[in-house]
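TICKET: design request
STATUS: open
ATTACHED STRUCTURE:
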């Protein structure tokens, strides 16, 4: 008996299925809040990391933990638990807050 060949899924189909699994029971109209929060966190973290690296490159390591040096360049200073690379950041950090789901990051900012 010959085995049926499985159709290879496109990247779009795989991403769509993954997003639906991650979304769980959240309504699509509310899901945008979760996704936009995560996109903003990634953007803010990238800008933060870029500024942090600039300070280090300029031999100003003593200032990397002082928000004023980030704010001067219109960059959010992110404390350790608000950073993209914080352990356990994944979707397990999405928590109910006032009936809507938000990331811990959004609540901190």
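STATUS: resolved
RESOLUTION: sequence designed for all positions
ATTACHED SEQUENCE:
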């Amino acid at each position: 008996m010959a085995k049926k060949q499985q159709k290879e899924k496109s990247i779009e189909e795989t991403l769509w299925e993954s997003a639906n699994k991650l979304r769980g029971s959240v309504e699509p109209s509310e899901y945008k809040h979760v996704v936009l929060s995560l996109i903003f966190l990634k953007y803010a973290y990238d800008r933060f990391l870029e500024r942090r690296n600039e300070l280090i490159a300029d031999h100003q390591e003593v200032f990397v933990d002082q928000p004023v040096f980030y704010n001067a360049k219109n960059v959010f200073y992110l404390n350790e638990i608000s950073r993209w690379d914080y352990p356990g950041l994944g979707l397990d950090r999405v928590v109910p807050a006032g009936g809507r789901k938000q990331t811990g990051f959004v609540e901190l900012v």
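CLOSING REMARK: The chain has one domain: 31-108. Helices lie at 11-23, 28-57, 68-71, 104-108.
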